[in-house]
Write a structure and sequence with these properties.
Shape: elongated
Helix content: 40-55%
Oligomer: single chain
Strand order of the largest sheet: 1-2
Number of helices: 2
Largest sheet: 2 strands, antiparallel
Distance between the termini: 43 Å
Order of helices and strands: HEEH
Number of domains: 1
Radius of gyration: 17 Å
Structural class: mainly alpha
Number of strands: 2
Strand content: 5-15%
């Protein structure tokens, strides 16, 4: 299992959620100074990473094997 920067998935998930909140409340995704521009992580990348980390944290908490349960929608 690969952990970024030596952090466990729950710590990374917390950081990802903080980054998403910062972008949604006025944080800037990119900026330019003269001829140079810098782009931070975009929301799409953060949401994808969050989804993966949520699955990893869930696996750690609930065990590796889980079964999906599908049912019919009654109308």
């Amino acid at each position: 299992m690969l952990y970024h920067f030596g952090m466990d998935p729950q710590t990374l998930l917390n950081l990802i959620n903080e980054a998403i909140a910062a972008l949604l409340t006025g944080g800037h995704q990119s900026y330019s100074i003269g001829a140079r521009s810098v782009t931070k992580l975009d929301l799409r990348s953060l949401f994808e990473e969050r989804r993966m980390l949520e699955m990893e944290v869930d696996r750690q908490l609930n065990g590796a094997a889980r079964l999906a349960k599908f049912g019919r929608v009654r109308t």
